[in-house]
Amino acid sequence: MTLRSKLALFISLLLLSIAAFAMEPFVIKDIKIEGLQRTEPGTVFNYLPVQVGDTMTEDKSSEAIKSLYRTGFFKDVRIESDQNILLITVQERPSIADIQFSGNKMFQTDKLKESLKSIGLAEGQIFDKTKLVFMEQEIKKQYLSLGKYSANVKTSSFPLERNRVAIRFDIEEGIISRIKEINIVGNQIYSSSDITSSFELKTTNWLSWWYKDDQYSKQKLTADLESLKSFYMNRGYLEFSVDSTQVSITPEKDDVYITINISEGPKYKVSDVKLAGDLQQVPESELQRLIKIKKDDIFSRQKITESTKAMNSRLGNDGFAFSNVNAIPEINKDEQTASFTFFVDPGRKVYVRRIDIEGNQRTRDDVVRREFRQVESGWYAADKIDRSKVRLNRTQFFSDVNTETPAVPGTTDQVDIKVKVTEKNTGSVMLGAGLSSAEGLVGSFNVTQANFLGTGDRVSAQVNTGSINKTYALNVTKPFFTPEGIALNYGVYRRDVNTSSLRVVSYNTSSYGLSLGLTVPLSEKNAISYGIILDNTEVSNLVVGVSPDRYIDFCNRLTGTNNSSACSMTQLGASLGWSLDTRDNLMMPKEGRLTRVNGELSVPGFDIQTYKVFLQNSEYTKINNSITFGLNGQFAYTDSYGDKPFPFFKNLFVGGVNSVRGYRQSAIGPYQMNTANGQNLFLGGNKQLVVNAELFMPMPFIKNNDQFRLSTFIDAGNVYTENEGVDLASLRYSAGVGVMWVSPFGPLKLVYAKPFNNQATDVTENIQFQMGQQF
C-alpha cells in the first residue's frame, strides 16, 4: 500500500472514529446494511463485532468500521443509528472484469495472468491498485533479469458498468542488453580466459543466439563469483577473495560491462589432517578412508567438501540422520600451510516413524512401498533411502521422485520420510510405422500398459510388420509375483522371418510358441532367471543348388526325404541366467554396470538338441556430470549335441546398428556366393564376439534434456563357424557418431559410421537408423 493510500485510510478512519465518538450507547434492535452489490450480507455480519441485542458503544463502532475495512471489500464504510437500529452504509471496491496485455513477446499472456492470480489480481477478484503497482514493478524485474534494461511497463485501469474495472498492461520490451566485456582485475597466476571459462555468463559469441549466455543476470553473476572462488580455492589459494564487483551499462542500454576485482593470495599446502570428536559410532579407520585430502597435498576446498559429505553419508547409513562433520583449519601464514581437523558430531541416532507417499493417483501405495528398502520403525539409513529413490525411478512409472526426512515434532530421535512422486503416462497405443535402414518401412501396432491398473504389472500386445521380421506377441510381466520380489513373465508369440531382404542365404522361418520365466533376486542388484519355451518352427524356401548343402541335409534328415525345400520341428528349451545390474538408468545410464550370463538348452527328445552360452558385460563410468564412458563386450557360443544336426537358422550374425555399426545388418563373416546374381550371401556362425567403446554426451544446443544423447564410438566384432577358432586379428572395426532420441513414437537411433578394415566381401553402410522399435 502506498503512503498516499495509507494516509487517506488513516484520515477516513479518524473522521469516522470522531463520528462514532459522538454516538450515544444503545441496545441494537436490528442491523441494516445498504450499498451491497456483490457481497453477501452474511459476509458483512461475519466480520461485525456486534449483533442484535448487544449494546452499541463508541469503541464497538470504531472496531466495526476497522473490521469491515480490513476485509478489503469496501472503499467506504459509514455507521449510523436510527431509533436503536444500526445502519451500515458501504461502498464496495470494484471487481476486475478484464485483464489485457499488449506488447509482450517474451512472456506468454497466460503465464503473466497466472502470476497476477497468485497475488490476487484476477478476473472476478476485488481490485486493489497497490497490487497493480506491485505487479508492474515485478514484470519490469523479469525483463531486467533477461537483460532488457530498456523495457517499460505501464498499467491503467478503466471503470465499467456495475462497479467493475478493466486492467491493461502496455509493455515495451526494448532491446536486449548484451555483455560486451568481463574484466578480471588482480589476477597474476591465471589468465582471464582461464578464469572465465567456467562462467555461465559470456561475452557475445557465435553461439550466444542460442544459449543467450551474453545476457546479464544478477543471479548468474552470483553463481559465477562462487565458481571463481572455487576455481582458486580448489587450486590451493586459501586466502583468495573477491574484493568488489562493478556492473555498468552504456547510456543506450545495449552494452553491459562487468569488472571483478580479486586478490589471489599465496598457495597453501596441507600440513596435517586429523580426526576428532565422537569416533565411537563408526570405526575411525573407515572415516579415515573417506578423507580425500592428505598431508602434503595442495589445499582444495572441493576435497574438503567431498570428505565431510562422505563422512556424513557414512554416519547416515547407521542411523545418524543429523550428523555434522566440520573441517576446522589451522592456518600458518608464515609457512603458507594449513592443517585440518575433521570434527565428528554424530548427533542422536534416529529411526523412521512413518513413510508417507503423495502424488500417486493411479499407482497403488503398495507398488511404491515395495520398492522401498528403508522400513518404517527401523533405524534411519541414508543409503537405503537413496537406493529406494533409484528403484522408484527405474520403474519408469514416475517422471519425478523426491524424498524429504523432516523431524517428528516433539521428538529428537524420529523422522518421517515424505515421498512425493509425479506420475507419468505408462500406457501407450501406437498405430503407425517405423523406419529401419535394414527393413525399410515397418508397420506396427503396440498396446502397452507398464503399470496395469496401478499394480506395477506390465501387459503388452505387439504386432510388427517388416520385410524381414513379422511379430505378433502378447506378454505379461509381474515384477512382484511374490512378496519377496520374484518376478513372473509369460507370453505367446508368432514370428515370421524372411531373410531374402538381407545379404544372408535366403530362407524363411515361421515360429510360434509359449514362454514362461521366473526371476529370483539374490540381493539388491543381482538375480537368477529361469525360463522354458515351447516352440514350433517351420523352414521354407530352401532351393536345391542355391542353398548350402548342409541346409538341405538338415531338412532331409528331419523329413526323411531327399531334396527337401521345407521342414518343421518342435523344441522345448530351458534357460538359466544370472545378472548383475547397478545402472542408474535403464535407457540412458550415466554410471553403473550390467553383467549377464545366460545358458540355453534344448531338452532331449525333441527335433532340436542345441545349447547356447551368452556372456555380456557393460560398464558405464561418469567422467563428469555430462559425459559418460561406456564399454560393452559380449560373446556367444552355440552348437548342437547328441546325434541331432545343428539348425542353421540359429546361427549367430554380426553387423548392423545394434552390433558393429557401419556394416549392413548380418553382413560380416563367412559367406557363400549366389551364382544366380553374383552376390555374397552371409552364413553366420556359431561363435560371436562384439566389443563397443562409446563416449556419451549431451546434445549441443539443447539444455536440460533427458530425451537426447549424442555419442562417439568405436566398434569391433565378427562371427566364426564351427570349424574356426576366435581370431582377434580378423575382427572388423568401425568408428563414428550417433544420436539417440527417446521420442513419443518410440526410441530413435541414428548413426554415421565408417568401417576402416572391411574386407571386399563385407557390405558396408555408413548411415543407419532405427525408429519405432526397441534397441
Question: Which helices and strands occur, and which strands form pairs?
Answer:
Blueprint (H helix, E strand, L loop, with lengths): L2 H19 L4 E2 L2 E5 L6 H7 L7 E2 L1 H13 L3 E9 L2 E8 L2 E8 L6 H10 L10 H17 L6 E9 L3 E9 L5 E8 L6 H5 L11 H4 L6 H16 L7 E9 L5 E9 L5 E9 L6 H6 L11 H17 L6 E9 L4 E9 L5 E8 L6 H5 L12 H13 L3 E7 L9 E10 L3 E10 L3 E10 L8 E8 L3 E10 L8 E12 L9 E14 L4 E15 L8 H11 L7 E15 L10 E11 L7 E13 L5 E13 L30 E3 L6 E3 L4 E11 L10 E13 L11 E12 L2 E10 L11 E5 L4
Parallel strand pairs: 2-5, 6-8, 9-11, 12-14, 15-17
Antiparallel strand pairs: 1-3, 4-5, 7-8, 10-11, 13-14, 16-17, 18-19, 19-20, 20-21, 21-22, 22-23, 23-24, 24-25, 25-26, 26-27, 27-28, 28-31, 29-30, 31-32, 32-33, 33-34, 34-35
Which sheet architecture does the biggest sheet show? 16 strands, antiparallel
| Anisotropy-based shape | extended
- Unreliably modeled segments: 14-21, 430-443
Number of beta strands: 35
Report the CATH superfamily of the largest domain.
membrane protein fhac: a member of the omp85/tpsb transporter family
The chain-level structural class is alpha+beta
What fraction of residues sit in β-strands? Answer: 35-45%
Spatial extent as radius of gyration: 37 Å
Oligomeric composition of the shown chains: single chain
| CATH class value of the largest domain | Mainly Beta
- What separation lies between the terminal Cα atoms? 62 Å
Q: How helical, in percent, are the residues?
A: 10-25%
CATH topology of the largest domain: Porin
